[in-house]
Amino acid sequence: MSKYYLNYLDELESEAIYVLREVWAQFDNPVILFSGGKDSIVVTHLAKKAFYPAKIPFALMHVDTGHNFPETIKFRDDLIESLGVRLIVGSVQESIDQGRVAEEKGKNATRNALQITTLLDAIEDNKVDCAIGGGRRDEEKARAKERFFSHRDDFGQWDPKNQRPELWNLFNGKHFEGEHFRAFPISNWTEMDVWNYINRENIQIPSLYFAHERKVVWRSNSWIPYSEFLQLEEDEEVVTKKIRFRTLGDITITGGIESEADTVSKIAQEVSAMRQTERGNRSDDKRSETAMEDRKRQGYF
Amino acid sequence: MQIDNNQLLRFTTAGSVDDGKSTLIGRLLYDSKSIFEDQLEAIENTSKKKGHEGVDLALFTDGLRDEREQGITIDVAYRYFTTPKRKFIIADTPGHIQYTRNMITGASTANAAIILVDARHGVIEQTKRHAFIASLLQIPHIIVCINKMDLVEFKEEAYDKIIAQFEEFSSKLLVRDVRFIPISALLGDNVVKRSENMEWYQGAPLLHTLETMHISSDINKVDARFPVQTVLRPQSEEHRDYRGYAGRISSGIFRKGDEITVMPSGFTSKIKSIDTFEEEVNEAYAPMSVSITLEDDIDISRGDMIVRTKNKPESSQDLEVMLCWLNNEAAKPRTKYVVRHTSNEQMAMVKEIIYKIDINTLGRSSEDREMEMNDICKVKLRTTKPLLFDSYRENRMTGSLILIDPATNQTVAAGMIV
Hints:
heterodimer; A: alpha/beta; Rossmann fold; 2 domains; 16% strand; B: Rossmann fold; Elongation Factor Tu (Ef-tu), domain 3; 3 domains; eight-stranded antiparallel sheet; six-stranded mixed sheet; 17% helix
């Protein structure tokens, strides 16, 4: 006698596939926002499943801060080739060169906030009407209020108090010229779900997620990778540690944790015992209580 | 990783801060060890700043800046926790009357609703409103948590009195499964751990109830309905002639070889294969996302529905619908709205408001013909082409619809087909 209910990972997968197919049906020119991080990798994997045996019918868009881990770029290019999809790159360096944005100054300067302009420009230039992201509601308190289909006005801004109600599985992606949507197929997944799924599906992820030896600097309670973009303070010291990253962002702001976990199942075990949220190591979220909400309002991922 | 075999339960909590709703959610997350150190630290700091004694668990559910400043919930917030038995999604919704639309949004996908009652005040108008919405949205399980039992000295009489009050008015509502649990969210009694202060209560604590209630029958597995989302045609060497209908099964079970009818065209065929990325499967059931191929070449596109020939949905242009108005612009008479129902979309007009429900007294009024934000009305809806539907009571997926105002693109109403 077979059972007629899904386990929770299958239900989350089915929901995400439904959202991806709905995006394809409701929009003319959607893209997947691909950062090289595990969440956008999982979304890409789900897109592969959603349209099989056809290819993923949309491009991947990468906002390149110029401050990348070299491993991420290699991983991105390999994946694009194996999927046979188009890659669109929005370059923060170009935005700076064109005078669209100005580089932040000082010790904790990052290009995190600058990405917003580059992203919105890339969306406009490529006439993208829906950008699919790997955002999850468990990540951050402002994200807890996000919809599957999230409206952005013609300035690319999110208005959290005036969101469209989203009932049952009926998504409303109607929009006027110049406006766009963000879609979040894995809204209901937690960090743990993502790792369990990567483990179950045997999904390839960048080596940065596994424990490895790296030159690092202790700053704001985490190990920041040493790179040419990092300005050292006098009391700071470059040391070599065995670390891994829980999230991947710009190389200047992504903190690593000391770890021995060198397989996905060991990572999943480590994550289940973690006592800190994954964004606890992201200095971009530490700037203020509402750092994420403020950036999201302006058009951040 | 045994958790992989477990089910997902979605529940909604309606109530205001005064009922202790935020404290209850904070308590569930805290006692099930779902709160991280950095979150706890942030809450401890805020609690201190605000001059609270100890950790204010309610602060865990604080979201947007405006909500924190005003100490209220405005929008639906989703929260997650997992126990060794189940994974849970909480749709945390505001309880105040002006946020009825958010409560309905949170309730639309829930397996269970938690309704909070203050043990000192008993059943009040807000309780009735929440229970009514839970029944309107056909949430399969309702758990009435009688909170703040510590403030009535954990007395059984207080609990019994509230059950009697609730039974009295809820007998008129269509609810299938109601349970009552006396709790103290503040002190943790009967939330995760069994209370030592209420020996007279023989039932299970809240978390155990959520972990063990039977939910696999919550989805209709009788009426096979497959709304086509999109058509997959790879046109590659390997899959030259593949033509798959992609979608998520709304209800029921489909098997290879089933005789099917495509609605609305009425063409019949047989299921040739049911495909997933991994493999071809012999049967598939709601809520699986699959791709179906048919024995015959039929013209099928998004908005069509594949059903079993022996069990078809109703088809009509004239529907009676319980409509909840969600937009701050009132309904305009004789205006055409876009109706979205399953993967289908067409135009519709509200022909008549049959009656409006007074959400506090649950009385009906046929005099008042205005439909404003948060109003719930029974209406007659006429669509340009027949809609393929089941009654909402039978099937939440094929019985639900939304209206979109084409002038603003806003989602203006949610409807449940009677």
